[in-house]
Write a structure and sequence with these properties.
The protein is mainly alpha-helical. The chain is built from two helices and no strands.
């Protein structure tokens, strides 16, 4: 899920267990 930014965004929202993904999504949503 780290390959595609859009996938990471959805993955981060689905899995709040990874604060790293959440931060990355908030920093640059769908870059």
């Amino acid at each position: 899920g780290k390959s595609k930014p859009e996938n990471t965004a959805a993955y981060g929202l689905t899995v709040p267990k990874s604060p790293h993904l959440e931060t990355s999504t908030r920093s640059r949503p769908q870059t």
